[in-house]
Amino acid sequence: MDIEQANLEAVGRMMEARPVLTGMGRALDVIPGMREDLLLHAGPPITWERASGPMRGAITGALIYEGKAKSMEEAQRLVESGSVKLEPCHHHQAVGPMAGVTSASMSVYILENKTHGNKAFSNLNEGYGKVLRYGAYSEEVLERLRWLNGGMAATLGKAIELSGGIDIRALLAEALHMGDEGHNRNKAGSVLYTAKLAPFIAQAAPDSETAAKILKSLGDNALSVLNPVMACCKAMADAAHNVEGSTIVSTMARNGTDFGIRVSGLGERWFTAPVATPKGLYFPGFTEADASGDIGDSTITETAGIGGFAMASAPAIVTFVSGTPKDAINATLEMYEITIAEHKAFTIPQLDFRGSPTGIDIRKVVETNTTPRINTGIAHKEAGVGQVGAGLVRPPMEVFHEALMAFAEKYGF
Questions:
Q1: How is the beta sheet containing 94-95 ordered, strand by strand?
Q2: What is the pLDDT of residue 386?
Q3: In this structure, are strands 249-255 and 295-296 parallel, antiparallel, or unpaired?
Q4: Average pLDDT over the chain, rounded to an integer
Q5: pLDDT tier at 395 (50, 70, 90 boundaries)?
Q6: Portions of the chain given CATH number 3.90.1710.10
Q7: Residues 51 and 36 sit within 8 Å (Cβ to Cβ)
Q8: Rounded to whole angstroms, how far apart are CA atoms 322 and 328?
Q9: Distance of CA 67 to CAs 56, 62, 104, 291, Å?
Q10: Spatial contact of 161 and 23, defined as CB atoms under 8 Å apart
Q11: Among 239, 270, 267, residue whose Cα is nearest residue 411
């Protein structure tokens, strides 16, 4: 068996994937395997008993939103009784930031990989402050969710269809040249996204007031494009999955309790270990003692070669996650040591337009004792408080050791 050839195939598929945003739909109608009694969540599998505060809050909020519960106690009973099931977004071709909870009636973006035919899905971004993805479920949070998943989603869906689809890979490539890295900094990408949709939103909206409200919501939220970007990276990573003999990481995700990876040549098996707490800058009044463990599916961006792997393209991000512009460049340079390719579409001006480091090889991670760099938001450890900072985090090395041992066992090395 030729591991190098298998890895080149996997990473080639990842880079050749061209995910296009083609529309929106109700999760129950479009996400494979979605059910009325199912909630999708970020990261590897989790139970209520082991769930973090933000995860419990988001589960509770989603069940209240769906009319299935009225309190956290009711939500807990539903989940622990088995009346409501919890499954990872990643098991259903989906991703979600932070807690990532997606319920049956929520609206989701639909991304189609025009190269290989696979699809990926992600929910809508709520913006900053107290939001469901950070475990908040007050009435104001629920009211915003109703608007996002109702009137806004209906108009957005029509606008996306009228646009003929938005090539998110191309949008990302442009945003990297404008100071974004695609994970924690999406200011340029969100502006590009809003500008591309604006004329079609004006055309699709039932009236000018609705159009103005949607455009303001998109324009005020520097994370507007994050969810389509995550689905884009999911479609790319899925295209690289299940290549026999490949040691390339095709999933990295966290649920606030565990960090998990999956490897292209090792099928659907998760390799997990306890998450770390991010190191970074905290909002006034908060410290690391307030932080939840690392959480969210947004590490799919690093899996696909952007985010922390493209920090060199976004020197201004250090004002948000700590460090200096030189640190951002060094972070990207370090990631070339654990990857096997330079991305053909994602290039970095600050490195003479060198392609971003792409294709994490578990062998290189173990050999160099270097884990991936990840940019992330930091959630409060208690449900409902929201974001308390942003910073950097690394996966536990154990998951890469375990995956490499499993690879050796499967393939007889």
A1: 94-95, 119-123, 107-113, 19-26, 166-167
A2: 84
A3: antiparallel
A4: 96
A5: very high
A6: 19-230
A7: no
A8: 10
A9: 17, 9, 11, 30
A10: yes
A11: 267
Question: With contact defined as beta carbons under 8 Å apart, do 272 and 399 qualify?
Answer: yes
Average pLDDT for 269-275:
98
Take residue 72 and report the two structure tokens written for it: 């956290």
Per the listing, tokens 């007050």 go with: 138
CA–CA separation, 99 vs 29, rounded Å? 22
C-alpha to C-alpha distance for 382 and 390, rounded to whole angstroms: 16
Among 58-62, 254-258, 262-266, 382-386, the minimum mean pLDDT is found in 382-386
Kindly state the greatest CA–CA separation across the chain. Answer: 64
pTM of the model: 0.97
Q: What is the DSSP letter of 322?
A: S
| DSSP string covering 15-72 | HH--EEEEEEEEHHHHSTT--TTEEEESSS---TTT--HHHHHHHHHHHHHTTS-SSH
| Domain 242-411, CATH class in plain words | alpha beta
Contact yes or no for 7/340 (Cβ under 8 A): yes
| Residues facing 391 on adjacent strands | 280, 376
Domain 19-230: which CATH number of 3.90.660.10, 3.90.1710.10, 1.10.3720.10, 2.40.30.40: 3.90.1710.10
List pLDDT tens digits, range 279-322: 989 999 999 999 999 999 999 999 999 999 999 999 988 887 77
Query: What are the Cα distances from residue 314, in Å, to 23, 178, 294, 320?
Result: 29, 8, 22, 11
